[in-house]
Amino acid sequence: MPVTIIEKFDSREATEGVEQPSAELLFVVTGTQDELTVRATVEATVPAFYLGLPFQEYHIKHVGNGIWDASARYGKHDPKESTFSFDTGGGTQHITQSITTVAKYGTPDHGAPDFKGAIGVTTDSVEGVDITVPVYNFTETHYLPSSLVTPEYKALLFFLTGKTNKSLFKGFQPGEVLFLGASGSKRGKDDWEITFRFAASPNVTGLKVGDITGIDKRGWEYLWVRYADAEDEKVLVKQPIAVYVEKVYEEEDLNAMGI
After folding, report:
1. Could you tell me the CA-to-CA distances from 191 to 148, 150, 187 in Å, in that order?
2. Would you give the DSSP letter of residue 172?
3. How far is Cα 103 from Cα 216, in angstroms, rounded to an integer?
4. Alpha carbons 194 and 184: distance in angstroms, whole number
5. What's the DSSP call for residue 126?
6. For the chain, how far is it from start to end, CA to CA, in angstroms?
7. Which residues of the chain have pLDDT under 50?
8. 176-203, pLDDT tens digit by residue?
């Protein structure tokens, strides 16, 4: 019989207040008589934060016949608040196509060939140029209770590193956020200080490369251009004939981190 955990219908009781806000989530675990399995299931399920309050503790009680009650409590357990920082310094990307060719100049005898936006065209290749592209880098430092930062939670952070968001995350659309990893240290017996690092790049639609239009690309997908020889102004030139958008990062639910 599989082990299952569901939230009770009378869960999510909360107390508002400046001094001691608190909240409680209630669950039912079924399918096992083993207490260690119940604890592992609860620890893997409860979020790190609820209503902006950090997780404090959980309690379990064996009702009987493989059925357990579980509750998770949230509240201010430490005066040290989570911190957030960001920068929009951008990243560097090598491109071979311009947005548009502003001007071209030829000699009186020969007009300037049309490369359809290709940059740095030589006889054998398209050299391109390095530019600064919009990348939103941000970090969040949270203080999580030791009961939550289990080996399974650390493994989850490892697994999610280098993944993009499958669903809406921190206000960003799917595919726009890349999780760069986390670093943490334990503060005494009570909690962990963990810094989470992210980078965001916008999804784009309706791109145009040369005469190729209607190109859509998610933020962390990779776009490259295939060129072929063509003749323009009686000169052999290279022009884009195909555009490819490649998926290079796997997608996962970054909300599983519970922050």
Report:
1. 9, 11, 6
2. B
3. 27
4. 4
5. B
6. 32
7. 79
8. 999 999 999 887 767 889 999 999 999 9
Burial of 219 (0-12, 13-18, 19+ CB in 10 A): buried
User: How many other CB atoms are found less than 10 A from the CB of residue 157?
Assistant: 18
Q: Residue 101 region, left (φ>0) first, then alpha (ψ -120 to 50), else beta?
A: beta
Question: Is beta strand 251-252 parallel, antiparallel or unpaired with respect to 164-165?
Answer: parallel
Instruction: Show Cβ contacts of residue 48 under 8 Å, excluding neighbours closer than 6 positions.
Output: 54, 55, 142, 144, 148, 257, 258, 259
Handedness of CA 41, 5, 144, 85 (dihedral sign): positive
Token pair, residue 169, equals 């995350």
Q: Say whether pTM exceeds 0.85.
A: no
Q: For residue 156, report the phi and psi dihedrals to the nearest 5 degrees.
A: -65, -45
- Burial (CB count within 10 angstroms: exposed 0-12, middle 13-18, buried 19+), residue 118: buried
User: In this structure, what DSSP letter does residue 97 have?
Assistant: B
- The rounded distance, in Å, linking the Cα atoms of 65 and 21 is 35
Helices 35-45 and 151-160: crossing angle, nearest 10°? 40
Residue 78 confidence (pLDDT): 53
Q: Encoding tokens for residue 249?
A: 């990062």
d(CA 139, CA 158): 16
